[in-house]
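thought: fold this chain, then report.
action: predict
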Amino acid sequence: MQPFGTITRDFKFISTRTREILKEILELSPNYPEFTKTLCRRALSESATEELVFLAIQHSSNLGFDELKWRVLEAHGDRSFVHPHVLYMKAISESDWDTVIEATEAAIEQSKSEWCAFLQLLHLFKIVSLNRFGSPLEEQTQKRIEKAIEQNHALDQYSPRFYLDLTIRLRVEGDVSHAISVCEKGLSQAKKVDDKLNEIHLLWQKAELIGIYSFGPGTTEIAKQILREATKISDDIICTPCRVLILSLIQVMCHMRGEYTEAYDISLENVKTLESIGKQADFSLHNLSAVCNEMGKGREALEWAMQTVQPYEKTPILRPIAYLDVAWSLINLGRLDEAEEQLNIAREHLYGSGYGSVLAIENMVSGLLERARGDYESALTSLERAWETNLRENRHNRVTSCLVKLAETEIMAFDPTPDNIQDESSGIWLTRLEEYGEKMDLPGVIALTLFLKGELRLKQGRLSEAHEIDEKVYEMSELPGLAYLKDKAHYVDIMP
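observation:
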């Protein structure tokens, strides 16, 4: 295989013996995954050097080879530099970050080389930037990294990882413009040192910052172009987890554009890809269930949602999402009492968590249940609350979803009278949906708005206009990602 910086950047810091082993593995390996598998097998030996074990942990993490990584961790778990990584893997589900931080600090102190200590320090920053956000420890760790690079410029080739975690932290903080600036620095450095892996992740962050967090007319197309660049690099080094991550972001952008057919296809591809490498497809299953529900396919949505319940049980913050997915699916199937049971289970796990985005899903599902029972006033209140939370948190795929549901509910509540049967809109929400789709240049949202206008015309008794609108909706179903609209045409029988 052709060596690249994510592998070769370590050469100047490691011993001659370890470097020769890596070169030998490189010569025998056709690609990065095979290099990593061979490296891990070599690292399982009791005589494996600290450097070789540490590199095996790093590269198996890069490619999501969790089983191989665990074997290495179990074989060398008593070593001080390995112990923090064992605890880190456990903390992902148990959230015991204090123990991980303490062990990582100890590993830094006991490191036999400046190189190993610095990589542990980078790992510590990743932990504290996400789990001790805004704490003195986070600031101290950042300063320690910057000082280490200043004192040894050779360590700067690891800065793309630091810039990546700093970008994520700034994005969480809401400082999008600063996050983009830091991300660009990281990309420049990643290209300079040929760190393809972190280049992919930084491109992903840039696409998310532009396409989601700076959402506006044309931003999703710019983001998709950035992701195409990331996909090319990912395919070159055969990084399957990277490809799944990229497709997941494209799926979110398709969802927010109302392009549900493409969102469905991408989620399905991700599920199959993850299953092919023996990994759980939890988040992709959630996406599949959500997009099936958007298209009104309750039975299929329920099948996917049920597959998330058991794996999501392991993670407290994800647990309510599984039950909310199930409840939403049951509402679409008209099984309202069962849906309420699932909704109540979700609430038991949810309240007190303070996790806004999940609370927004609960508000949305609650609104849909209220609507299904004919309580349109309560439904509008719940859905508006969900819309406001998603708008505040820049979750534009859910902003689109909530706006559509608000407009649908408004039309369902619309009571035609001689005074309003000639009105062009059912009220504020259909108008807002239309303005949103046009302002943000979202073809799928524009098509959904047109379909809902047809629903309104039907209620108003303006059948010829409803017929004309349905013809337009059918035509728009030929646009990318909008094939699901073919099933929504009511009165038109046009053969493709």
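thought: worth noting. The chain is about 75% helix and 0% strand.
final: tokens above.
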